[in-house]
User: Fold these one by one.
Assistant:
Number 1:
Amino acid sequence: MPRRAPSRIRATPAGADPVILLYGATGYTGQLVLEECLASGVRPVIAGRNAEALQALAAPHALEWRVASLDDATALDAALAGAVVVIHCAGPFSRTSRPMADACLRNHVHYLDITGEIGVFEALARRDAEAKAAGVMLLPGVGFDVVPSDCLAAHLKRRLPAAISLQLAFYGGAGLSRGTATTMAENAGGPGAVRRGGRIIPVPPAWRTRVIDFGDRQRLTVTIPWGDVSTAFYSTGIPDIEVYTAMSAGTLRSLRLSRYLGPLLRTKWMRGRLVAAIKRRPPGPDAQARARSSAHLWGEVRDAAGTCVVSRLEAPDGYTLTAKTAVLAARAVADGGAVPGFQTPSRAFGVDFILQVPGCTWMDL
């Protein structure tokens, strides 16, 4: 575990539990996080924009609730009053992370979110010195993006300390929530991304493919601009990073076609139509679908001599895992485990943090 640096977070009154603020509690993932909080004996203060929805959510559990819009700094400061840490669940984080991080730095409250967006990770990484000066931890990606893959990357680095290249891949899950689908729609038509020589560079959609053995069978995978293209570099120092996901041949063809349709997909009109269609979908996979599903991750590192090390990680469905890892992270911070500055999950809580989630297991090949 990293050494804990002193924090300037306001002290919790004697005898009181540290206040965990759950912002975006009425959304699909926010409600899953709330359920996990309550199952773990944590009673968060819930917050968001909609007073009626918050009141309805809080009433059965007699929870405190606070209304604040992210574009109202005064209301947001009031919502953070007395909090030690915020779990920020209201996306798309490309728009929502900055105002919440600003408020956390102003009020000396530790920041957690569940983003998977490379731009958000990089923007918060650039605020490392500012966060250290404020005694605040900025830790984006405490959900499926990117806790399991980040810990897998760090585990592989532990196995091969001289590694200079990293490839990660995953498949599985019960489907997408409306929030996740909306984020994807807003990024439709954009390029892919990989790291080369420590720098993030754009690449065409579906830039590379690879057939990967996940243990059950070999699967076709394709590069995607997943959050680990950003975070794994900070966690491991490995300069060359690619992330893949399993995909059918038909979906791969569609993704390659998007290279030519990019200008159309990036228009406000098309993105509006995509988002409108998403809003007609169910909020996200139900409990039965999540229980039947699981996530499978794979990683490979190589050193300059060509030595190759491979590991796999089995985990619950991504939304179930997100709720559990977000609450584990918030509880660790509330217990004094924050490390000020920009952090990744494995740097903040250790390489084996993911193994605290039931059902998560390594397999080293």
Note: The CA atoms of residues 74 and 218 lie 53 Å apart.
Number 2:
Amino acid sequence: MRDITGLLVFGGGLFFQWLEGRREQVLELMALIEQDERHHGIVVLDTGEEFRERLFAGWSMEPVEPDEVRSVLLDALGNARDACSTQALRGMLMLLDSGRLAEMGRI
């Protein structure tokens, strides 16, 4: 078991995934995903390791539409308890609001 948590959004031709866990475990999973021919146009936004709380540890799978991504990130921001999590979420919101996520392969 990799002990990886995160968020997956799908809709309107967009897959957006946030993975969190120990760096080597996340990179191992990403290598498997990149080798899978069903996945293409992968854009990795960050591979740095941070020592922070997990943002999506207690979340269960549920459908989230692309136009709800901002609300999901804002909800996570409201529940974040450390500076690294807050900074990461604000960065994702800035990318989302700037339209830069949409430019990355439209994605």
Note: The two ends are 30 Å apart (CA to CA).
Number 3:
Amino acid sequence: MDAEAAFDFFVTTYGVKYRKAVTKLTKDCDVLLAFYDFPAEHWKHIRTTNLIESTFATVRHRTGKTKGCLSRKTGLTMAFKLMMSPQTKWRKLDGTNPIPEIIEGIAFKDGIKQLQTAA
């Protein structure tokens, strides 16, 4: 079952009971399902923003605790070092092979590359 068919099944199943929620989801269906227009290998990277949030949370907490930075330069240096330190634990992107295809505009449907047929 593809994403659109699953979405339609959800709408018919829960549309009567949860009318307002289904109406909002239906209104933004294109944006909601745009996730599936990318290769399946990239889905786990698209799905999360934890990498960005955790990096900035560290800076925010540390700068809040050290209110007395001696100067603007020392404050910026501390923030820079705090942002650079977590990169050693970052996971490399999976599925980097399809990136040139995405840039070229090759279509993906449900995470699978769509081959164009000659007319």
Note: Residues 50-65 form the longest helix (16 residues).
Number 4:
Amino acid sequence: MFSIDEILEITRYDELELDKLGDELSALFVIVPDTDATFNFLVALLYTQMFNMLCTRADNNPGGKLKYHVHCLLDEFKNIGEIPNFDKLIATIRSREISASIILQTKSQLKDLYKDNADTIEGNCDTMLFLGGGEKTTLKDLSEVLGKETIDTVSTSDTRGQSPSSGTNYQKAGRELMTESEIFTMDGGKCIARVRGFHPFFCDKYDITAHPMYGSLLDAHTGDPDGGKKYTFDIAAYTRGIRKRNKAVVSGDTAVEVYESKTEI
């Protein structure tokens, strides 16, 4: 892969300064194709370096924590590729003010990616939010985790004949709090939240249109006569403020073109 000029160029020098993510308020967007896994190793390399560098940074800080909490929103977790030793990282990063939200379509995706370590990763997540789905393994596991409830059952008998008799029998029994079928058919506006130390919550999903910043979304157009264009990031306009400096020799005969940005956003 490193014989490809574009790959060689973006990995030749550091522009991300991953170790500084916990030192100042900032956001880093890592966007990869969800239909082509060719270059997923670059993302796995990025995450591995980020976790290692942030942990080292936290260990060197007073109290062993980062200045600002670093929250990793790992959407489409199955498609970003396997992060080496993630089962160990997820168990140790919390004490250093680092957390991760693993977002999956089904639980089987996690097992397919991390095999036997999937249960370890899930066990280190204090909160689970189920938004809906139909994958059988996910429904079965969730139904078991929710536990059972106690119900009263009443059975009656009535015998007719020469010696008629009748009776009523009262019993207590247990049933799943929600069966697989009930979870599968639950209302689309509902979700199930499970937080460590509490009973599960069956609650409403948050209405994103009620958020005070909803109108700032590009696809919202709420109260925006130009259709949200002012919220679009124009890469061409951004790069106009970048001027190229002379070539700088990095090591030996290897040279790279250095660019300096004069644009602030």
Note: The two ends are 33 Å apart (CA to CA).
